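Why does residue order matter? Because the sequence determines the fold. Keep that principle in mind as you read this record.
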Amino acid sequence: MDLKELEAWFESKPRWLQDAGRRLVQNGSLTEQDYADLLDICQGEVIGKQVAFSGFPKGALNVQESAQPLRLDSINDVRGVNALSPTEPLGFGKDPICVVYGRNGAGKSGYVRLLKHTCGARRPGELYGNIFAAGKQQQSAKLAFTQGITTIVRQWAGKAIPELQAVEIYDTASGLVYVDEENEVVFEPWLLRLFTQLTNACTTLNSRMQAQTAALPSKKPQIPIELQGTSGAEWYDKLKATTTSKEADEKIAWTVGDEVELAELKKRLAESDPSKKAAALRVQKGLLEKLVSDLSRFFEDLSDKKCEAYLQAKLDAAVKRKAAEEDAKKVFEKAPLEGVGSNSWLLLWEAARTYSEEQAYKGTPFPNVVENSRCVLCQQVTNDETRERFVSFEEFVKGELRRIATQAEAHLQKTKDSFVEIPTAESVTVRLQAAGIGETGIQSTSTDVVQALAIRKLACLEAESPETLPALPASGILTKLQELAAEIEKRAISCDEDAKGQNRPELQQKAKELSVRKWLHEQRKAIHEEITRLIAVKVITEMQGLTNTQALSIRKAKLTEDLITTKYVERFKDELKRLGATALKVDLRKTRTQVGHVYHRITLRNAFQNLKTSEILSEGEFRIVSLAAFLADTEGRGAKTPFIFDDPVSSLDHVYESATAKRLVQLSHSRQVIVFTHRLSLLGLLEKFAEKAHIGLQLVCFSDYRTGEITELPVNLARTDKTANRLANERLKAVQKALTEGDAAYRIEAKALCGDIRVLLERVVEKDLINDVVKRFSPEVNTKGRIHALATITEEDCTFIDDYMTKYSVFEHSQPDEAPVALPTPDEIETDLKLITNFIKRLQQRLHQKESPSA
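Structure:
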């Protein structure tokens, strides 16, 4: 393998991957901080930001394999797992092999299920609590283990313990995985494991990137269905990360003019009779133009020029009237009565004129001042003084100054009457509404103008000089009203066109385009946020592209061909041979390589039908093949982590069972082996092979009565000398205490002790007398190195066993009522146990002396 070429290959890969490889080489794993740093490097690579990173140091790929030993020490404080309720830890001892024995239902499977979850097994299954306990239980346990020379205690609460994930567990479920399904090769040399770790890092980073994308859901509002099919809707649907803010602002711009145009289009489209609408609009236009004309006339009528002309006429009339009055004063100052020349007097004078000329002196000019004429008012004959006064009065009345004054006053009145009447504000509002102008601003401005004009008119009539007049209001409203009139005419023209019916589709599309632009304007904040989101998602997507595992998979597959596949198949064949299953027609074949992982599958050799292996093999064959695959997989690691087997010989015949037991003992040479079983035959075989190999074996026994509770080894499994001592010390004391409590209590304790003494005697025969030449639950007769013990058996030995077996067997059977056998007293039992203990000691010493010469 060319490591320099591999280093060059890594240098061509993304920066974050190179940095991840360096961290894995230096630290062995990636931490949360590592992943955060790698995400930053990956992002910097995508957006072009300079981020510090380091590749593999020279020669870093040339690293040797190392394996740190691991041992399980104990499981304690189990809560909420099946029906387990132990009061003591389940300890696995210090020996290479630990056998956990218990009958069905004793709790073995519960502990195995717990271990599968704590160690992260492939198929851990569902881990239930005690279904017979009320309420939900929190699942937890405390595991102690030794890694290297360090003892570690970890609390488990649902997630696998990282340090224990290398522990291998075999049970029925995992066996099915190995036979029927594809499986990744677990053993990997350091270099391949680096590829696996990098692949996992790719997957982890990709998942985190997916989570980042998922945390950026689109909040873009759904465009109304009626606005679909427009250019604005098409643009909105295709928003992308490259959409600029400038483009967006142009697409969503909205003005007051747009609002007016849209409203007008909607009105036009809503009109059922456009020609009638055109006529109505032109009526409104005429009313508005008439109002403009009137307002224009009001402005013109109250112009500075006209107001000045009125004030000038007013001044002229006053001046001329004053001159006429001064002239009259001269005429009438000698009159005997006051008021001569006043208006009332003038009326009287003119009335006298009419009377004189029409009745009293027809045909004679007034006043008649001939001699002996009479006054038409008092009917008296005039005299010279009277006639002179009449003549002077007439001259005044017909005088030039008075005439001029009268003319000036008539002109003033005419000028005053020429001022037009200013309408009220209410009437102007009514006229605007009639013209279709409902805008309050226009109405308010118009009424303010007419009110200002009315004030100017009143001020003009009362003023003495132009300087005191209020100014004319601004005439801009006239321009505005003229523009509105023109706009109404445009609408009328549009209605004329609408009446033709040819442009309606065009109007509808134009209205939709304006409507969608208005809607887009209302969503402007969401649109800019969506563009920002799309930019972020685009960056994340490009980052995900840098986590593609294809290159790693291809490269690893190439390395795998050299480092794993052939050796793995060879190990499988070797395991079949060791387990005595070479006659089975099964092969292990590589199926595929995917995402940096290499998969294999067990197939039937020379089969013409594609069936599952488990459907053809017998249950026992299936078990032995799956066990071979399991061991081929796990043994290839060269690791020193524990093996855990749950009833590995289930369904196996005695040949496979013996081969399996022998193989488990062989495994214990290099690693801890823990076996959970209920089969005494397997226990016996493990003890036999362990003894032959001089390997220590720890035996743990579960209680028959409390699930998962650790108890003392049963008499038929424990050493005979230790059992005899325990019966003589602990059990005998219980019997002695029961005697003080009464007959009933004594019968229970004494009968139980007598039964155990009988089992002890059976065990003495098997273990100490005949030296395990024949063992219960074992199909073999074991003679090698043992059969010499039979030659040492004496008549006294046989008599001793026969006597005490007879004595203590009787309590295992029902007693006749007529002649029941009484239980021995505590003193008698104590004496018997001492004799049995001495008997065992003599047999063991004799066997040891017999074995010593050959040793």
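Residues 411 and 545 are 100 Å apart (CA to CA).
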